[in-house]
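ARCHIVE CARD
CATEGORY: sequence design from structure
SOURCE FIELD: tokenized fold
FIELD CONTENT:
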């Protein structure tokens, strides 16, 4: 008897069956963006403050992410980029990756994400440089 692994069993489902998980992920992300779009993070008291900013005065790489998402939902790309440019790149990267995931699911192929170490180190370095520069005096243009 041949054993069938989980990936091959999963890929034998119908196209709608293969799209359930990507659709669920998109629904969750869309709901989160809808909430942030409806509940303005620029108004005090709606969201907790960043603990790093509150206790040290330093901006973390995520500071301004909610304001960025709010501006992005409302179509204000300059404000979204000003609030947190890295977050906007993350939104676009998610959209691209989700699209690739759906294409793979429709074609019945599993999506394998296996980034090379150079990419992981580069992304980490980008986040580190972004964080350091936004906390230096000349990086004020990166403050949320």
């Amino acid at each position: 008897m041949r054993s069938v692994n989980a990936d091959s069993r999963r890929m034998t489902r119908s196209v709608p069956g293969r799209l359930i998980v990507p659709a669920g992920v998109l629904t969750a992300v869309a709901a989160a963006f809808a909430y942030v779009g409806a509940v303005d993070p620029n108004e005090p008291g709606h969201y907790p403050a960043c603990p790093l900013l509150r206790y040290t005065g330093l901006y973390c790489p995520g500071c301004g992410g909610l304001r960025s998402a709010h501006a992005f939902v409302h179509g204000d790309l300059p404000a979204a980029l000003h609030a947190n440019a890295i977050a906007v790149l993350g939104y676009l990267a998610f959209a691209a990756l989700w699209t690739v995931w759906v294409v793979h699911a429709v074609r019945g192929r599993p999506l394998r994400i296996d980034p090379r170490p150079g990419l992981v180190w580069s992304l980490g370095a980008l986040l580190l440089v972004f964080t350091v520069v936004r906390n230096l005096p000349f990086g004020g243009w990166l403050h949320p």
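CARD ANNOTATION: The two ends are 61 Å apart (CA to CA). Residues 97 and 138 are 34 Å apart (CA to CA).
SHELF: design records, drawer C
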